Amino acid sequence: MATNEHNGTKTWQRRTPKTRLLTWLGWLFFLALLLLSFREISAATLWIFVADAHRQAGDLIERMIPPKTSYMTSIWRPLWDTLNIATLGTFFAIVIALPLAFLSANNTTPHKLIRQIALLVVVSSRSINTLIWAILFVILFGPGVVAGIMAITLRSVGFIAKLLYESIEEISNEPVEAIRATGSTPLQVLTYGIVPQVFPAFVGISVFRWDINIRESTIVGLVGAGGIGLQLDASVNALRWSQVSMILVIIFLMVVFSEWLSARIRKAVS
User: Fold this and answer.
1) Phi and psi for 28 in degrees, rounded to 5?
2) 72-269 belongs to which CATH class?
3) What b/e readout covers 101-129, taking b as 16+ CB neighbours within 10 angstroms?
4) What is the pLDDT of residues 251-265, one digit of tens each?
5) Reported pTM
């Protein structure tokens, strides 16, 4: 806020002249960056293919309809693998993220240096995409479900730990101080003063991440990490579009079910 002298009276202004100038310069910089990005993309784009995209899309949809329902018998095993990848990956991530969150939170970490190390682990996990993790683990362990589980696990650790340690830092300190005043041990303070306050958030975060992992586990197979994505990749490479559409329908139904289930669980614990 600022005041401006005008005809001997003071008028209220939302921003100072300097702030307005910086705002306009910021918008000009953003516009220039946007135009530069568009020019670079245009130079690398074959617009003749873009212009023909609607016809290609129509032809592809025509080949995908109707879905090959008889192919469902070949999908159940990859679908089960996908659910296992998401569920086991989430479980292992919780096991790792739970102590990591308490080490990362300001009010529960034993030392600032330990907190910085824990935060580094959290950031490292979140900074690498699931597909990148999957590629690395396919190289290490070979194609299959194990690589998918490891990829989902390491990607989920940072997500769960970050949201959980933020919840720990936001707890009320009064119950903790009351329990500590009774002469309780640090473990008892943690068990009876902190855990009950963060448990609903912990359940909600874990279920929410499992819901996300259901989606992500469907694509790790594209790089060989098992699950229904592997079946999808094989069908696309073989140009069997009616099988592709059947797989997409199954993936859609699975995601809708996981969304419904996670919403019900989060509502129950909230």
Assistant:
1) -65, -40
2) mainly alpha
3) bbbbbeebbeeeeebeebbebbeebbeee
4) 888 888 888 888 888
5) 0.78
